[in-house]
Amino acid sequence: MRKAVCCSLANIEKGIEVMKILLACSAGMSTSFVVQRMKKASADAGNTDKIWAIPVGDLEYEDDYDVVLLGPQVAKNLDEAKEQLNKDVPIGIIPKDMYGKCDGEGVLKLAYELAGGERK
After folding, report:
1. Residue 91's closest CA among 3, 6, 1?
2. Which of 21, 26, 63, 78 could cross-link to 2 by cystine, CB 3.0-4.6 Å?
3. What domains, with CATH codes, occur in the chain?
């Protein structure tokens, strides 16, 4: 098992403004719209979060993230993703309505909540 860098709660408590948020979906294309809106919401709040998307099949190659969110189209891969990821890393599924609306602010808030802390 790879050891992911998981320091989101510690970062939040220390006031560090960078959280690494990884989104996984079928091919990374439609999720790129969500990523762009999340980046905007993060910047608008004065944060400098690193947010990116990859195909769910590439999760095994990533090892530097604080929270992972799966797109609703790959929700069926949740158990497999949990096996591939460090057990300390929070993982969740983006709700269909948020995903469909490309609700970057809502998905960003979900990532923060999964990481166990509040952000600006």
Report:
1. 6
2. 63
3. 8-115 (3.40.50.2300)
Token duo for residue 110: 């979900």
Per-residue pLDDT reduced to its tens digit, 45-70: 999 999 999 999 999 888 889 999 99
Do the Cβ atoms of 20 and 111 come closer than 8 Å? no
Rounded to the nearest 5°, which phi and psi values hold at 75?
A: -55, -30
Catalytic residue among 6, 7, 25, 102: 25
Residue 94's CB is within 10 A of a number of other CB atoms, namely 25
102 in catalytic set: no
Q: Are strands 91-93 and 67-70 parallel, antiparallel or unpaired?
A: parallel
- Of how many residues is the chain composed? 120
